[in-house]
Amino acid sequence: MPDLVTAGQALAAESARYTAMGWMRGTSGNLSVTLGRDPLRLAVTASGLDKGELTAHDVVEIDGTGEALPGQRLRPSAEAGLHARIASVAGAGAVVHLHMLAPVVAAERWPGGIELRDLEMLKGFGRRAHDDLVTVPVVPNSQDMTVLGDAFEAGYDPATPALVVARHGVYVWGDDLLVARHRAECLEWLLRFTTAIAEG
Ligand SMILES: CSCCC(=O)C(=O)COP(=O)(O)O
Ligand SMILES: [Zn+2]
């Protein structure tokens, strides 16, 4: 697992990339990398910054509840608690939270979960192309990360590495930032396709 400096460099580079894609507009979105498991520790992007302009120092080390470790100059993401919960429950090495449009539009149409079927791009989302049915869970938005974490855990399927938060954005995870990015890119395609087909 990376140290805080290496993680900071990777988080800044990934944030710049997502910003260029239009998936971290304004100050939206946040990313994390797992630094250690026993006890759980993560590096997470700092709160309220332009994610396209981060340096390797604009990250905060947090514990398994999302609280910053003592002595740090920046506040962790407001959503740090959900990153920690996902890292704990799913065993993720990296979690990305993006404000892309497609998941939010799809969640508006299918608030009980978004069903994906028989699509080659499912392979890029960590599933098989011909899996009968892949359901991406949707939970209502909340400002309380314990509420969001409980809703995530209640619907958690180890085979599905994503969670859509209605009227907010999406969380995608994997063993590292590259896997998480590839899954996020493929999921965005899958959601755009599925919504476009449903609209006829
Ligand atoms: C316009 S961004 C609103 C807050 C949010 O949803 C987000 O993803 C960014 O929060 P952070 O505290 O990580 O900057
Ligand atoms: Zn957000």
From TrEMBL:
GO terms (BP aspect): L-methionine salvage from methylthioadenosine
Domain Class II aldolase/adducin N-terminal: 9-195
GO cellular component, one term: cytoplasm
Enzyme Commission designation: 4.2.1.109
Main EC class the enzyme belongs to: lyase
Keywords carried by this UniProt record: Amino-acid biosynthesis, Lyase, Metal-binding, Methionine biosynthesis, Zinc
Cofactor(s) in the UniProt record: Zn(2+)
Short name of one Pfam family: Aldolase_II
Listed pathway(s): Amino-acid biosynthesis; L-methionine biosynthesis via salvage pathway; L-methionine from S-methyl-5-thio-alpha-D-ribose 1-phosphate: step 2/6
Record has 4Fe-4S as a keyword: no
Cofactor comment: Binds 1 zinc ion per subunit.
GO terms for MF: methylthioribulose 1-phosphate dehydratase activity; zinc ion binding
Catalytic reaction annotation: 5-(methylsulfanyl)-D-ribulose 1-phosphate = 5-methylsulfanyl-2,3-dioxopentyl phosphate + H2O
Positions that bind Zn(2+): H97, H99
Family from the record: Belongs to the aldolase class II family. MtnB subfamily.
Function: Catalyzes the dehydration of methylthioribulose-1-phosphate (MTRu-1-P) into 2,3-diketo-5-methylthiopentyl-1-phosphate (DK-MTP-1-P).
The protein's name in its UniProt record: Methylthioribulose-1-phosphate dehydratase
Organism expressing this protein natively: Actinokineospora terrae
Chain's gene name: mtnB
